[in-house]
Amino acid sequence: MNKTFNFQNCRVRFAPSPTGYLHIGGARTALFNWLLAKKYNGAFILRIEDTDQERYVDGSVQQIIDSLKWLGIEWSEGPDIGGEHGPYFQSQRLDIYKKHAEQLIQQGDAYFCFCTPERLEQMRNAQKEKGLVTQYDRKCRNLTDEQIQNYLKQNLPFVIRMKTPLTGSISFYDLIREEVTIPFANVDDQILLKSDGFPTYHLANVVDDHFMKITAVIRGEEWLMSTPKHLLLYNFFKWTPPQFAHLPLLLNPDRSKLSKRQGDVAVSDYKNNGFLPEAVLNFIALLGWNPGDDREILSKSELIELFDISKCGKSGSVFDIAKLKWMNGYYIRHFEKTDQQKLINYYKNYLISNNFIDENYPIEKLKLIIKLTSEKIETINDLNKFIDLLFNENFNYESDAEREISKSENFKKLKSALFESLEKIEELTDKNLMTFIKDIQNQTGIKGKELYKLLRILISGHSEGPDLATLFLFFNKSGIVNRLKNLK
Q1: pLDDT of 115-145, one tens digit each?
Q2: Which of the following is catalytic: 128, 257, 260, 485?
C-alpha cells in the first residue's frame, strides 16, 4: 500500500459526462484537481466521458466548457484545444477500449456474458425480494469454450465482464480517507464493454488515465466503492495506478445529498442568478476543505498556495446558500474598491441583457449606479430591486405616508424651488451639488432632516433609500425635471 507520493509535475483530470449541466459538485471536483496541478506545476486535463450514448444531451459539452471557463478553471489539454494524449472524447477511442477488453478475455481476467436484459431484471427483482444486494449472479462466468463459441456463432448479444476474486479483500490508501479496505464480496463482476461496443465508465476511465499518464485521481465519494474494480484492472494490465482521493458529499441543509429538488445545483444557475465567478470559486473551495485557519475570503492565488488535499474532510459538507450570498456581496463591495472596471462589466452585462440599457450607456452613470446599490445587494440580480427607482420616471409614492406628505405646503414649496434652481444650472456635479441644495434651503427655509426627506420623496417617491446626493447626480437636471413633471 503506497503512502508516499510526490505531486510535483502531477497530471490530473476532470472527466464529466455530457448528460446535462455542470453540477456544482462536479465544479468542486474540477477545482480541486486544478488547484493541485497549479500548486505543483502539473497539468490539468479535461476529458469528456461520452460513452453513455443514451444519456447524451446535445449542447452539454459546450455548456460544461463554458461553465468551467466562467469559473476561471482552464486546462492544458482537452477536447477544444487538443493535446498529445488525445482524442479527449471517449467516443473517439472505442478501438482502444475494445482492444483492452479483448486482452482481458485472453488473459482470463474477463468473460463473455450472454444474459438478456429480461433475465438480469428477473435476477435483480428476486434478489431484492430476498433483501440481498443486487449483483450479477455470475451465471456466464464458467461457460465452456464450446458454449461461448456456439453463442458467438448465433450472433447472440453479449457484454464483457471482469472477473472479480470470489474471496478476500482489497486495500488501498486514499489521500483523504487514508487506509481503506473493501471485501471482494461487495464488488460486482462489472460490465466492461457493453453490447453496443461502448465501454462502461470503469474500463474507459482506467485505460484513459493510464494512457494520459494521470498520476492522481480526485473525484467524488460516490466512486469510492468502485475503486476496487479500477485497482483490479490496473493489476490485470500490470499498470501502476494513480493516487486516489475521494471528496466528501455536498449536502443540503437537512443533511440530504445536494439535489435540484431543494435548490440550484448547476453552475449555470448561479451565473444566471447574479453570482460572481470569484465568489462561487472561493465558496466551493471551502466545501470540505479549509486553509487551516479561520480565513474565508481567499483569492485564486491564495487558494493555489494553501491547497493541501490531505486537509479535506471525510464527512459531508453542507451547501449554505446564505453564506454564498454573503460572500458574493463581499466580492461586489471588494471589487468596487479594488477593480471597479470588473464590477462595471458585471453590472453592464446584467443591465444590457435585461434591456435596461444599451452598449452606449455612459460609464460614469454605471459608476453612480454602483455607488447607489453596491452596499445593498448580495447578487447582481438584486439590482432588479432598484430598476424602478433608477429608470422609471413615472414613479408613484411608496406608501400612503409619502402621499400625505406630498400634500403638505412645505412639499409644494420645495417642488417649486427645485424647479427654479434647476433652471439656473446646466447640470449637477460633485462641485456644485451642495451649493445647489443650500440654495434650495435658503429659498424655502426648510432645513435638516425634513429638507432631505422631502427632496428624496420629490425625486424618488420614497422617504428612504440610497444616498440622496448620488441620486441627484445620477438623475441630474433632465432626469429630475422629468420626474417632477410626472409627479402625481
Answers
A1: 999 999 999 999 999 999 899 999 999 999 9
A2: 260
CB 137 within 8 A of CB 273: no
* Residue 38 appears among annotated catalytic residues: no
pLDDT tier for residue 254 given thresholds of 50, 70 and 90: confident
Q: What is the C-alpha to C-alpha distance for residues 198 and 10, in angstroms, rounded to an integer?
A: 29
> For residue 227, what is the enclosing H or E element?
helix 227-237
CA–CA separation, 43 and 34 (whole Å)? 8
pLDDT at position 260 is: 62
Beta strands in 414-481 (DSSP E): none
Please check whether residue 149 is in contact with residue 202, taking contact to mean a CB–CB distance below 8 angstroms. no
CA distances from 392 to 144, 355, 356, 363 (A): 82, 13, 10, 19
C-alpha cell at 480: 429630475
User: How large is the angle between the packed helices 94-107 and 227-237, nearest 10 degrees?
Assistant: 80
DSSP per residue, 230-268: HHHHHHHHT-PPPEEEEEPPEE-TTSSBP-GGGS--BHH
The answer to whether residue 67 scores a pLDDT higher than 90 is yes
